[in-house]
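Good day; I would like, with your permission, to put a structural problem before you. The record follows directly beneath this note:
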Amino acid sequence: MQVSQRIQAEVEGHPVVLFMKGTPQFPMCGFSSRTVQALKTAGAGELYTINVLEEPEIRANLPRYSNWPTFPQLFINGELIGGCDITLELLESGELARMLAEAQKA
């Protein structure tokens, strides 16, 4: 399986996917840490995450797949939502909680 196919399978196989540096328990960068906190605050249950530090092929190819250069990258229902700043803005507006609730129902 090519890396882009694996990324697509991960994104389509889970309602919420976070590609991040580290894990939710041990984030390896501040942006990943803040994104995990935002998701938890918004009511995300068990997070499905991929540690790009342990997956160099995904780390190298995801920016081309998503057309987004940095990490973390949040996908909800197969769609790129964005990185840390966008996730925090959505949290503040209340939109993130709504999106997560819809994704977990689907």
About this structure: The mean pLDDT is 96. The first helix runs from residue 3 to 13. Residues 16 and 76 are 5 Å apart (CA to CA). The beta strands are 16-20, 48-51, 73-76, 79-82.
